[in-house]
Amino acid sequence: MSGYAPHTEAEVAAMLEFLGLSSLDDLFAVVPAALRMAGGLDLPEGMPEPDAFAYIDDLSRANRPAGRDLVCFAGGGAYDHEVPPVTRALASRSEFVTSYTPYQPEVAQGVLQAVFEFQTLVARLTGMEVANASLYDGAAATVEAVNLAVAATGRQTVWVSRGLNPTWRQVLATFSAGTGHRLVDVALTNGTTQWEGADADGEAPGVVLVAYPNYLGCLEDLAAARAVCDRTGAMLVVAFDPIAAGVLRPPSDWGADVVVGEGQALGMPLGFGGPYLGLFACGLSQVRRLPGRLVGETVDAEGRRAYVTTLRAREQDIRRHKATSNVCTNQTLMAVTAAIQLGWLGTTGIAEVALRSARGTRYCREKLLGIPGIEALADAAVLREFAVRLPLPAPVVIERLVDEGFLAGIALDGSYSSGADDGLLVAVTERRTRTEIDAFVDAMAKAVR
Amino acid sequence: MSGYAPHTEAEVAAMLEFLGLSSLDDLFAVVPAALRMAGGLDLPEGMPEPDAFAYIDDLSRANRPAGRDLVCFAGGGAYDHEVPPVTRALASRSEFVTSYTPYQPEVAQGVLQAVFEFQTLVARLTGMEVANASLYDGAAATVEAVNLAVAATGRQTVWVSRGLNPTWRQVLATFSAGTGHRLVDVALTNGTTQWEGADADGEAPGVVLVAYPNYLGCLEDLAAARAVCDRTGAMLVVAFDPIAAGVLRPPSDWGADVVVGEGQALGMPLGFGGPYLGLFACGLSQVRRLPGRLVGETVDAEGRRAYVTTLRAREQDIRRHKATSNVCTNQTLMAVTAAIQLGWLGTTGIAEVALRSARGTRYCREKLLGIPGIEALADAAVLREFAVRLPLPAPVVIERLVDEGFLAGIALDGSYSSGADDGLLVAVTERRTRTEIDAFVDAMAKAVR
Amino acid sequence: MTDVVTDVMPEPAAGGRALSAPLMGRDAEPTLFELSQPGRRSWQLRTTGVPEVSLEDLVPAEHRRPAPPGLAEVSERDLVGHFTRLSHRQFSVDLGAYPLGSCTMKYNPKICDAVAVLPGLADVHPGAPASCTQGWLQLLVELEQQLCEITGMAAATLQPAAGAAGELTGLLLMRAWHDAHGQTRHKVVIPDSAHGTNPASVTLGGYEVVTVPSDARGCVDLDALRAVLDEDVAGIMLTNPNTLGLFEEDIVAIAAAVHEVGGLLYYDGANLNAIVGVVRPGDMGFDIVHLNLHKTFATPHGGGGPGAGPVAVSQRLVPYLPGPRPTRLADGAGDRYGWSTTPESIGRVHSWHGNALVLARALTYLLVHGGDGLKQVAQLAVLNANWLRTRLSGTYDVPYDRPCMHECVLSASSLKKSTGVRALDVAKRLLEEGFHSPTVYFPLIVDEALMLEPTETESLQTLEALATALEKIAAEAVEPGGAQYAAEAPHATPVRRVDEARAARTLVPTFDARRDVGS
Amino acid sequence: MTDVVTDVMPEPAAGGRALSAPLMGRDAEPTLFELSQPGRRSWQLRTTGVPEVSLEDLVPAEHRRPAPPGLAEVSERDLVGHFTRLSHRQFSVDLGAYPLGSCTMKYNPKICDAVAVLPGLADVHPGAPASCTQGWLQLLVELEQQLCEITGMAAATLQPAAGAAGELTGLLLMRAWHDAHGQTRHKVVIPDSAHGTNPASVTLGGYEVVTVPSDARGCVDLDALRAVLDEDVAGIMLTNPNTLGLFEEDIVAIAAAVHEVGGLLYYDGANLNAIVGVVRPGDMGFDIVHLNLHKTFATPHGGGGPGAGPVAVSQRLVPYLPGPRPTRLADGAGDRYGWSTTPESIGRVHSWHGNALVLARALTYLLVHGGDGLKQVAQLAVLNANWLRTRLSGTYDVPYDRPCMHECVLSASSLKKSTGVRALDVAKRLLEEGFHSPTVYFPLIVDEALMLEPTETESLQTLEALATALEKIAAEAVEPGGAQYAAEAPHATPVRRVDEARAARTLVPTFDARRDVGS
Ligand SMILES: Cc1ncc(COP(=O)(O)O)c(C=O)c1O
Ligand SMILES: Cc1ncc(COP(=O)(O)O)c(C=O)c1O
Hints:
The complex is a heterotetramer, with 2 copies of chain A (449 residues) and 2 copies of chain C (519 residues). By secondary structure, chain A is of the alpha/beta class.
C-alpha cells in the first residue's frame, strides 16, 4: 500500500476477516450502488513526494516573491515586516502545528497558555480588557464586531468609514446579505472621515466603524468618531493596526467599544494573503457576546495554575442557532505565532518597528512627492503608509516598476481619487533601507516620466 | 546590552555589588594587565541579525549548489541522495540539536535511544555485532580502525588498497606521523586491488585496508583480501558504503574484522563536505578497543528499559593517555539523522535506492562510453559510480559542463590514469532522471568534441 | 477544591528553569509576563540608514501613546525556553493517536510543511499584480479543478478560511439563488445530529432553523423531513456520513424531496474522509459543498486553526460564487492566469484569496495521493473505524449498531449506570494511557457519547492498543475504588483535572483581568 | 535491583501510542525494531524513467546480498511519532539551563540554524570546482581571519572536526616544526587538571605525557614545571583558564620557560569563552591554539556533536598547516578565491574541508557579535560564574577559593562526609528541580567535584533559582530520610536512576546483541 496509511495487505485481510467482510468495497455496502463511482476519480495518478515537491516548486518559481529581487513597498493590509528565525523556529514546532483545539486541557496547556498570553498581549496593545483567541483575519473580525455591536445596541445601521480597508468593507457587505445590516458609507475628506452629514440618511446607527490608521495610512480623529457615537448611541468599532499601536494612542483611550485588526504583521509571512490573523478585543461587559474561543486561567485538582477554554456556552457548538457567531476552527497557530513575535519584539521592539517604519515612510513620501507629476492624495498625518496621485494609471506604473525590481504599492480604486485610477498606496516598513528607497524613487521618477 | 545575554544594566550593577567589584573589568584582575587587550578586537562591529543573515545569504548566492541549475553527477565520497522533508523535520528538533553528550541518562533517553537504534542499524547493515555512536567522517573512522587493528595485532604495517578514497588515505598518512604506522600502497589493476606482490616489501601487515565498492566504484574481491589476511595474520578493515550495502553482500560475510564508512548518504546534505558521519563497526571481541562512545541498554531503578553510554572506561576522559582514541565530541546529531533516514528507508528502501542508483549508473555509463573518445577506466563491476578516461583534461571538461548546468564528476588524480589528468569519476544516484542523464550525455558529447 | 491559586509564581521568574517541563517536574510554567525584566530584549532590526527623525516630529502629540504598550521584555534565550517548554506541555498528532471524532486528526505529511515555506509561495504579496503571481494563480486553479472532480461539482471558491465560513458562504449562495429567482424563502432544514456550526450558520445566513429528527437507524427520518418541506424551505444542510458516522442511505430520496419543493442541498464536507473517491456529493444530488481541507486533505489543525473551507457548487450556482476568482485566461501573449468576477457574485468572503498557504498544502497532498490514493484513504479510514466499533461493542454501548463509516459513536451510558464512571472520566483516563481522548458528549442526541475517529493513518497495532486501553478502563471501573480512580483521572499529565467551572465563574481572560462573572 | 528487563514490549508495538511521552505516562518507548511490520514503508523516490534493469543483471551473483538488510519497516506516521516522542525524552538548552562545566552550553541563536539550511550553502558539493564555490571559499577565509584576530595568531586551518581533532592536529604541527628543525623530542607536558583528550592526543601524536601538578592555588606549579622542562620536551598543552576555571596567572613565566628549552605552547581553546575579546592566547605566548566553535561560538552540540575545532598558529608554524587551504587569490580576471597547499604541510586532517556547515554557523555568530559583543560575552560569562561561586560558597566546599573565570568548581566533599550525599546524588536531584546537572567528578584532582558553568546566556533569575535549588538539596540532605531521598533521585524524570553498572556488565550494544562482559 502507498500513501501514509500504514496498513499492510496482510493486515487489511485480517481486519476484513475480523469484520466478516471479503473486500474493502464491502465496507461501502450501505452506499447505494448507483452512487458509487465506477471508474474512480479522474485525477492525475499519485506522484511520489519528490515529484510533487518539484511540481509545486515549479509553480513557486512562476511567482515573484517579495525580497531582494522585488523590493516590497506594497501594504494595503499585508506588510513586509521582519520575521526572525526564532519566531519561525518556535511557531513551527510540531506540537503547535499538529494539535487540535484544546478540548482536553490536561494535555493542552501548551497551546492554552500561549493563547492566554496572546489574549493578554492583544489586550495590552489595544488597551481593552479582553481579547479572544483569534478570528480568520481582519475582515472576519470586523464582521464579528459589527454583529456584536448590532446585537448589543439592537440597531442594524452601520456607519462605515471609507477609510476602512475596501476589501474588508466588501466582506462585511457580503455577510450583511444574511444578517440584514444596513451599511452606510461615510466619505473621507483629505484622508480622514467626514462624519458630518452621515446622518442625512436618517436612521440612527448601531455601529460606527473606523480604521486607525486608515486605509490611506492616515491617522483618524477618533475623538470625533467617539463623539458621533456618544451623540447617536452607537458603539464604536475601531480597526487598529498592531504595529502602529507600538506608538499610537491605544483605541481604548479614545473610547472604542470593540477593537479589531489584522495581525499578519505580527510574524506571519505575506503568504499570498493567508493564513493571517483576526484580532478582536472588547470590554469585559461584552464578554458573553465575544465571538470565538476564549482561554481563561484556573487551577487543576492539585491547585496548580492551569488554563482552559472558558465561557463555552457562548460558542456555536453549545448555543447552536442562538450563537452570535459560527466560528469554530480559527487561526490558533497564528495567534501562537503572534505571541512569540510579540515576545520577541516586546515593549521596546514594537515601538521601534513603528518608529522606524514611520521614519522610512516620511523619507520615502517626501522623496516621491519631489518627483514632478506626483502629488499627495491626502495631507493628514500618516505612519507607515501613504497615498499619492500619479500622472499615469497606477497599474501601468506598478508593472513598470516590477520590471525594475520593485513592488511599488497597491493601486487604489477610483473612489479614493475622484474616479481616476491614478492613486497608489505605498507602504514603507522598518525593513526598507535608505538605499532601497532611493533606488525606488529613482525608478519611479523614470517610470512616470 | 545587546547580543544574547539577558543582563540588564541594573542587574550587572547589582551582581557586581554582590561580588564587591566596581566594574566588569575587575573580574579580570587576575589576568596580568600587560596581557589584557587595550583596544579591543579588530573585528567589524556587530551586525543586527537581519544584516548578518543578508551577508551570509550573499555568500551563499556566490556558490552554485547542486540542484536543478547544476545537476549533480559528482560523488567521490559525497552523494546527492534523496533527503525527505520528514528527515529534515525530525533531525532538526531542537532537543536533538541543542543537547550535549548524554551524561545524565535520566534526562537524555531521547538521544540515547536514537543512538542505540543507530548502532543497531549500522550493525545490521554491515553484518557486524557492534557499532559505535559515530566518528567525524569516513576518513576519521578509517584512522581509528587502523589504530584498533594495529593495537590488536601489535603490527604497524598497513596495506592500503589504492581503491581507498585518496583523501582518506591522506588523512591516514597525516595521523600516521604520530602513531608511526607504515603505510604500504597496494595498486589497482583494472579497477580492483592487486594483492599479489604487496608483500615484496617484507614486513607482514597488521592491517589490510580495502574499500567496497572502491573509489572507482568497483566491487573488490573481498575474498581475496580476506585470504591475504588469513595468510599474513592481518586484520581486515573494509571501508563500505551504506547505500551500496542495501544490495551488496555485507562485509561481515567476507570476514571483515572492522568495517568503516562514510554515512553522509544517510540523510545529510552535501554541505560542502561536513558535518558528515563516520561509521564504525566490529565484532564484540574488539569492543574494549572500540573508539568513541557506545550506548547500551540497561534498566532504571524501577526496572524499566533504559539506555546509557557504557564501557566508558575505554574513553579518553577516563583512560587519558592510555586511551587508544582521543575522540570526545563526535557527530551524534548526524547519527540521529542517519537513524531517522534509515527508519524512513527501511529494509526495502535502502535496497531500492541502491538498485535505482545502479540502474542509473549502468544507463549513464553505457551512454557515456558511446561517445567517441571516451573510454572506460576500469571494467570491473560497478554500482553507483564509475570512472572514464576523457580525450581532454578532466578539469577542463568539468568547467565546460558547469556552463551547461552539470556537475560532471570528480577529476581523478593522475595515479588512476597512468599519470594523465584525463580521469573522471561519475556518480549516478537514484535522484537522476533519464532526462537529466540524456542531457548530461549530450552536453558531454559536445564538451569533448 | 481550593479557591485560591496556590502556586504563586516568584516574580520575576527564572527563564532558564525547566521545572514545568514534563521531563523534569510538574510545576506551572511562568507566563511571558513573569519572565519579563525591563531592559531585556530579543529584537534585532535591519540597519537601514534612514534618517533618524524623532517620534515627536513624525506623529502629532494627540496621536502618540502616553505610555509604552508594556508587553513583555525577555531575552531570546528565555523566549525560546518558554515556548519550547510550552510545546512539551502540548499533545499533538506527531506525539500519538488523536481519535477525536468529527475532527479527522490524521497524520499530516511533512512535505506539506516544506512546500508552505518555499519563498516563491510564502513571500508573495497578495496584492501583487497577476504578472508576479502566475504560479499562485495556477496553483489555485488546479486545486479548484481537483476539488470539483472530487465533489462532482462545477466550480469552487477557495476563499472561506474554515468550514464554518464555507457554510455561511454556501447559505449566502443559496440566498442569492433564490433571490435571483424572485423567491424569498425563510427556512433551512438541518438534522438534530448536526454539528453546531450548521444551525449557527443558518442563523447568520438570515434563515430560520428547522430541525428534523433522526430515526432509529441514526439517519434522517424521511417522513419527518417530508413533513417539514414546503416552498418556504430554502434548502437542507446535511453531512453524509452524518455526525454519527453513518451513511444517509436515503440520500437520493432526500435530494429528490428537497429539490421537489425548490430547495437546495448543502453538503457539510467535514466527513468527506469517509467517502472521498468512493461517492461524490454531486452524484448524491447536492448543490453546494464545503470541504474542510484541514480534515480530509491533511493540512494540520494548528492547535485550532488555520483551516480552509472551499465551497464547490453545481453549474447553476457558479455565477454567484464569491469573487474575484483565479481564472485560466484564453491563450495569448500575456499572462496565462488572471482574476475574474461575475456580476451575480455574492462578493468577497475573505480579505484576500483565502488561507493560501493552507491551500498549497492541500494541493500537495492531493498530488501525492492521486485518485486511487484518495479512495484508499477513505477505505482504510472506514476499515479502521469499523474494526474499533466491532472490537469495542462488547465493552461500551453501541447506540446505532450497524456498519459505520470513518468514525463510530459509542456510549458510556451503561458504564455510568453501573459504576458512575462517565464518558468524561473515560476520556480523562485515556490521556494517561498514551492516547488523546475521543470527542465526548457529541453528537448531542447520544447519551454519554464517545465518538472515535481513528483515521487511516493509525495502524492496526495502535487500534489494538487503544481498544485494549478502553477495555482496561471499563474493567477498572467495576473494581473497588475504580470509579473514584477514574473520577480523579488523569494522574500522570502535567496538570491534573482542570477546574472548568472555576474558569467560567471567576473569569481570568488575561494576565491583567480578573472578574467574577457569576456561575 | 532486579536483573531482568521487566517491561517486555509487546511485539509488535503500537506506533501511535504516546505512553512513553512524559506528558502522558512513564513507559519505555518501543524501539524502531519493535514498531517494524514487514510490508510497511515510508520512502518515496523520484520518478526517473531510467530503464528498469534487474539487480541480477547489474550486480554479479557473488556480490549480491543473500538476504535483505532487515533494518525496520515503519510508516512515516510511526517514524514521526517515535522520534518526536524521543525528543520529548531529551533535555536540551532550549528547554532550560545546562550548567555543565567545561562544555559551555550556552543558548545558540536560531539565526545560525537558518543560515545552515540555505541551499547555497547546504547543497554545495565539496568536490565542485572553485568556480562553483566562491561564496564558501570567501566564508572560510573570513572565518579564518576572524579567528586569527581573536586568538592573536597568523593563520588557521578549519579542517579539524572537533576539539580533540584540533589537539592532535596541533601536536602534529609541533612534531613537524621540531622535525623541520632537525630535532626529535619525545615529551609533552600537561597539567594534572587537564581534560582527558589532552593526554590521549599526546599519545596519538607519538609523544610521552609528562604530568605537572597543580599547586594550592589550582594553577600550574611553576617550580614543578621547571623541573620537568628539558630539551626533550616538544611542548606543553594548557588551557587558560584551566579546567578549574582559574586563570593561570603565571602564564608569561610559563611561556618563557617552555620557549627557553625550545618547546612550543599549545592552547586548548575549550575555555576561550572566559577570555574572548579580553586577552588573546597569542599575546600570552602560545604558538598553537585550537578553538571549540561548538562551545565559544555557539554552534549547537547536537547531543554530542558535530563540533568544529579549527587550529590557529603563529607565523612560524604557518607553512605546516594542513592543506589544501582556502585562499584569497591575487586580483585578476578569474576566481577571487582558490585552494593552496604548502610543501611543508602536514597534510589533510579531514576528508574534505572540515564541518563546513558548522563553520558557517560560527561566522554568523561572530558577525552578529563583533569585537565588543564578544568581549561582553566573556565578561558576563565570568560575572555569572563568580556570582554562583560566591552565592554557593556557604553551602558547598570551594576547593580553590579565589575569583574564577567562566566556571567554578565546587565540591560536595563535606556534604558527603556529613550526610553521605555525594556529588552524583546532588546532580540527580537537580534534574528534577528543572536544571541540567553540572559536570561531576571532573576535574579529577577535586574530590566530589561539581563543576558549574552557567554561561552568559542565563539570567540572574535563573542563577538565583539554580542556587536556591542547590541550597535546598543540601538542606534536605541533613533532614531525616534526606540522604535516602537524594540517593534515590531523580523521582520525577521519565526514567529513574539508570543502572550504569549493569549496562557495562551485560553489554547490550544493539537490539540484537547481548553479551556478558564481566564486571
Ligand atoms: C461536522 C462538522 N461540520 C462543520 C465543522 C466546522 O468546520 P470548521 O471548524 O473548519 O469551521 C466541523 C468542524 O469540526 C464539523 O466537524
Ligand atoms: C578542556 C577541554 N579540552 C578539550 C575538549 C575536547 O573537545 P571536543 O569535545 O570538541 O573534541 C573539551 C571538550 O569537552 C574540553 O572541555
